[in-house]
């Protein structure tokens, strides 16, 4: 599929050329993890976190951030801008349907989120000896379902937002919620229990990531919710996506 | 055989009928103009031809293809330049052309295209850093990168400075000379007059006239006016006796003679016989502008 390959290549270059998407999308989550880890107290085991170190406890939240920054801010913003500026419309004048451009954008952004997540895991391991995910398969399932649900929501915003301003307004609210429930702003042990439990079901499902990372099998219900969210939001986005 | 056939095309937007029974044919190798005021239905008409919009009635064939049924196939042979369509700011000229070339089965040579459009030195320049004229040229290049047989160009020179407009016109003539049939949507009279073989004048969703530029002006009036300052006095009767002359008026030192298409030759030979020199001679013809106002009752906004 030469057209799709070419689209992925160009969209990847545009992603890397944009200093905002490059630094915030790719590097920020690792930088924050490393910054927090530089504080000695956060590298000590603490009874608040069941004897874990804060840095181990926070690592999955850095993953939430990696996924959310790319899937909820970059992806919808780029697509809404493409619609607003007539990039999608111009593609409609060619034999290649603009859905291929959407697909290319998803591939590039998924790769970016994945790269950002790998950076978090590897830098945590190398610098602070944060253990690698203990249940690799459970972790992979939780991560794939989590990233799918967040990206599907991002696509839904891109599908309906009439302008890039509207898209950024909507995504800011969603992004802040995901970050809050994902324990990025406040560590989750400081949240009321009810809110922390709600957070288990908010994409991308930080508790599932934490469980699988630290060696517990992730619970089925939150994973099912992530899968359902991904399918529902993704289907709806595909149905109502406006090309112009 | 006509390369484009449009019959009784109808398009409604809600209760508003934007295109109301338009029919025309475009011959291969022609530059066919669609001229009309803003909101006349020009863009909607070409969007139905391009397959970007579904029609509510009538039939459209482009090279025998139905734009609604054979969309992807049609787009292999149809180049489309849209008004108001941009690219990502950071994409470079060369990248955009390579990308769009990859969408077609038999694309044009992008190096030659870049050269033809005078963008050689801009190959590495991002879209956002191009001037308006350069962006427009890139947009034309993207419409031509698939080696189309038919090109539809919508409001091609809107927003360009006069030099860029003339350069663009030259380019369009080159494209036609290479065998591409062109539909040109415009609300500029001078552009239509300069480029088009035939013009459909569209107003409120209907074609009000379809003719060559000369035919359109002739349809309104065959009248010509000749204005000059005579070197010696003469009686009006000298000219009024000519069958070609309808009226003779004087304004200050000038004489204004109105008559049919041959009035200039008739007046010039009579003056020469009487050793009168016509200084500051000017011929005023009915312009396409006048024709447009007569046909639609509106003037074009510039």
TrEMBL record, chain A:
GO MF term set: ABC-type transporter activity
UniProt entry tagged with the keyword Transmembrane: yes
Principal location class: membrane
Annotated TM spans: 21-42, 62-82, 102-124, 136-160, 167-186, 219-241
Membrane topology: Multi-pass membrane protein
Location of this chain's protein in the cell: Membrane
GO cellular component: membrane
Protein name: ABC transporter permease
Domain (ABC-2 type transporter transmembrane) ranges: 7-192
This protein's UniProt keywords: Membrane, Transmembrane, Transmembrane helix
Organism of provenance: Glycomyces lechevalierae
Pfam families for this protein: ABC2_membrane
Automatic annotation (TrEMBL), chain B:
Membrane topology: Peripheral membrane protein
SUPFAM superfamilies: P-loop containing nucleoside triphosphate hydrolases
One function term, GO molecular function aspect: ATP hydrolysis activity
Keyword Cell membrane: yes
UniProt-listed Pfam families: ABC_tran
Cellular component terms per the entry's GO annotation: plasma membrane
BP terms from Gene Ontology: response to antibiotic
Location of this chain's protein in the cell: Cell membrane
Main location as per UniProt: membrane
PANTHER family: ABC TRANSPORTER ATP-BINDING PROTEIN (PTHR42711:SF16)
Domain of life: Bacteria
Name of the protein described by the UniProt record: ABC transporter ATP-binding protein
Domain ABC transporter: 4-229
Keyword terms: Antibiotic resistance, ATP-binding, Cell membrane, Membrane, Nucleotide-binding, Translocase, Transport
Transmembrane segments: none
